Amino acid sequence: MGDTFAERLRKLEDAEQIRQLNLAYRRHLDARDLDAYGRLFADDGEWLGGTGYGQGPAGITAMLTERLARNPAPPGPTSWHLVTESGVDVRGDWATGTVTWALIQRGEGDTPVMRLLGHYDDVYVRERGRWRYRRRIACTDIPYRKLDVPAEWAAGVAGESSAAPDDDVDNRLGRLEDAAQIRRLTQEYRRVLDARDLDAYGRLFADDGEWLGGTGCGQTPAGITAMLNERLPARGPDGPAAWHLVTEPEVSLDGDRATGTVTWTWVGRGDADAPVMRLLGHYDDIYLREHGRWRYQRRIAHTDIPHRPLDLPAAWADGVASGSGAAAGDAQDRLRRLEDLEQIRQLFVEYSRVLDKQDFAAYGALFAADGEFIATPQEGLQQAKGPAAIQALVEAMPGSLLGSAPGDDFHVVVNPLIELDADDPDRARAEVTWLYVVKGEDGLPSPAKLGHYDDQLVREDGRWRFLRREAPTDIG
Fold first, then answer.
1. Which of the residues 49, 86, 264, 363 could staple to 138 if both were Cys, CB 3.0 to 4.6 A apart?
2. Alpha helical stretches, state H, 257-325
3. DSSP alpha helices (H): ranges in 195-251?
4. How much is the pTM?
């Protein structure tokens, strides 16, 4: 890589800050805190979507205040947005990105229903030391709603890079590592919960960790495991009957402690073996670095649809005390591991993007020279080896396993759990959940299938590629 150490570190910090910007956007939008929402935009920032057009923080706030329906307190007709990992390309003080979003609302029988599915096309700018939206275009894909985008709104950006912060490199690396480890903790929680590995689940909590939710309340790893063993239904002989989809955590770090918020949905098997959203909610978290690893000091599992109020102890304050955690290892090695995680996440984003565009040549190019793709839908085994053969395989899928044309279907990819090989720096493994969404008979987005990817990854010619991607279908 031609960039200096400082430039490489800065790019990772920028990507993390933009990720947190996108999560703050969702939080303020769903809370209808439109003043805070407007402040996420640059001084000359622009927003365009089905609701209208606004420019400048005050102008965007005013436009949405006038046109956007209130989001009443539960149990009213509340709405939530799910947002996926953002694909980001940083160029100095400018960046571009794409984010998939889904609008979930309270439906009949007090169940969550997906109303809209779309994506954001973003241009970001660093303004007064903080990343802001220079332009956000909110595209609705299902049902399709055409936007009149000005011709002069080019996607490309160019810009000079401002000076990188000159504080301690070790602390800067440590903050990025902490965010990555909490992201991994979130995915481990989801994985062991769905697998009903409740002993492993309990070990994700600190020695005095606490869990509170609709299932009950537990304290300490053993106590939390015992409470869930008593109250959760056992996993049946046919494997899991439900899965959790979780968003990226919105994290605020403070030494050896941190706070975070995560949106979750619980997806079960419905009629005709189709995935159905049963519950939607969010976690309010306090994290603690204990024995050198991040753990849950407290996790509160709120259910928003259907609304289920929790009786929170009055002593449970949100504040965290600061401390300092020691980061270990050579700075170059630590930076490379963080870069590898970021590049693999971006590979997953690119995979779903080119698949939904039906750009099958670009799809095949995401695989290594001897890469394999294996899918096991009900229609029968689909398997190919090598980029050209994989391209040919997926080119035959439109009209059967894929929509007839781009825009007919979309893949929502969440829950990335990545494990870098400790012995081989050019290898990794990962597990990712996918939700296949199509246009329903009413024109609204309809989840059709749910499954997961089991991945083996390899660094080839300096870029991460799929060495083997298996795509089992779990529902549908």
1. 49
2. none
3. 198-202, 221-231
4. 0.88
* Other CB atoms within 10 Å distance of the CB of residue 313: 9
Q: Which two tokens mark 35? A: 């003043």
Alpha carbon distance 393, 267 (integer Å): 30
Write the CB contacts of 93 (distance below 8 Å, at least 6 apart in sequence).
125, 126, 159, 160, 161, 162
Chain segment 9-23, per-residue pLDDT in tens: 999 999 999 999 999
Q: Mapped to the 3 state alphabet, what secondary structure does 36-103 carry?
A: HHHCCEEEEEEEEECCEEEECHHHHHHHHHHHCCCCCCCCCCCEEEEECCCEEEEECCEEEEEEEEEE
How do strand 205-213 and strand 293-305 relate by DSSP bridges?
Answer: parallel
Bridge partners, residue 344, by sequence: none
Residue 179's contacts (CB-CB under 8 Å, 6 or more residues apart) are 16, 251, 253
Q: What is the pLDDT of residue 76?
A: 67
Encoded tokens for 230: 């008593």
Q: Is the peptide bond before 416 cis (omega within 30 degrees of 0)?
A: no
DSSP result, 384-417: EESHHHHHHHHHT-BTTTB-SSTTSEEEEEEEEE
**CB-CB contact of 438 with 444 (8 Å):** no
What is the C-alpha to C-alpha distance for residues 415 and 421, in angstroms, rounded to an integer?
19
Average pLDDT, rounded, for the chain: 90
Q: How many CB atoms lie within 10 A of CB 294?
A: 25
| pLDDT tens-digit readout, 308-346 | 888 888 777 555 444 444 445 688 898 999 999 999 999
The answer, yes or no, to whether the previous bond of 249 is cis (omega within 30 of 0) is no
**CA neighbor of 191 nearest in space, from 178, 207, 204:** 204
CA nearest neighbour of 311 among 321, 319, 300: 300
- 3-state DSSP call for residue 350? helix
